[in-house]
Write a structure and sequence with these properties.
The protein is α/β, with parallel strands linked by helices. It has 6 helices and 16 strands. The N terminus is likely disordered. This is Rhodanese-related sulfurtransferase.
């Protein structure tokens, strides 16, 4: 996953770059966002304070890219749930997704808590579908909560660290962890050396809760305690 600086101006937007950043401010001043390359799409990362300003203006749609339980527990007020998927699944149709009813020039802000791995995946898919004004919150939902911004529900402080090793050939692809019974998920890009590290902000789990872990090189299901002790690799599969 490559991160670079994305620059645009009102003139450039009018010239056809709205598909990357859109016409959010309309101020005519140059705006600067970092972007992530996700599934060959450039996803702008908007600072959390700027996303809060957009939330106050009420003409921006917010998308929670996590799982159902995570959304039910706490989410940005008025956000909808539209879960992130693997890049290779983007071509598959979604059933009754709330974003289907939105116009393609609608400004959309995606978020997660990791801080922006799931959200950038969901944003990248929306951009690939033709939505023209899509962002992911750079600092994530945790920063939104810490700043006291409008939140429905109460987020759990539970977190679990997983360190793993995959094939270096998997670099830039994703490692996914999920708890199927509660529909909670997390994803993180794999580093150049094949390593990955993710923080699971999952609630309601015990040490024996089964976690599904998937990389391009292996898939396994193991108790949470097994995945948080030492480095996970294909030997557990």
């Amino acid at each position: 996953m490559n991160r670079r600086t994305f620059l645009t101006s009102a003139a450039a937007l009018a010239g056809g770059l709205a598909g990357c950043l859109g016409g959010g401010s309309g101020s005519g001043t140059e705006s600067e966002y970092q972007t992530l390359d996700v599934g060959d799409e450039q996803v702008p990362l908007v600072p959390v304070d700027e996303s809060h300003t957009w939330h106050q203006e009420t003409d921006t749609k917010f998308v929670d890219a996590r799982g159902q339980r995570q959304y039910d527990e706490a989410h940005i007020t008025d956000a909808v749930l539209s879960t992130a998927r693997r890049v290779e699944d983007w071509s598959k149709s979604r059933q009754d997704d709330p974003t289907d009813e939105w116009s393609q020039d609608q400004r959309i802000v995606c978020y997660c808590r990791c801080p922006h791995h799931l959200s950038s995946l969901r944003a990248g898919e929306l951009i690939a579908e033709g939505y023209e004004d899509v962002y992911a919150i750079d600092e994530g939902f945790g920063a939104w909560i810490d700043n006291g911004y409008p939140t429905t529900g109460s987020a759990s402080n539970a977190s679990f660290e997983i360190r793993g090793q995959s094939d270096p050939a998997d670099a830039g692809k994703y490692a996914w962890a999920s708890h199927e019974a509660s529909d909670q998920q997390e994803a993180v890009p794999i580093a150049d050396d094949g390593s990955y590290q993710m923080t699971l902000h999952f609630s309601g789990l015990s040490s024996t809760s089964p976690i599904d872990l998937r990389t391009p090189s292996y898939e396994l299901t193991a108790p949470l305690s097994d995945l948080t002790e030492g480095v996970v690799d294909e030997s557990l599969a």
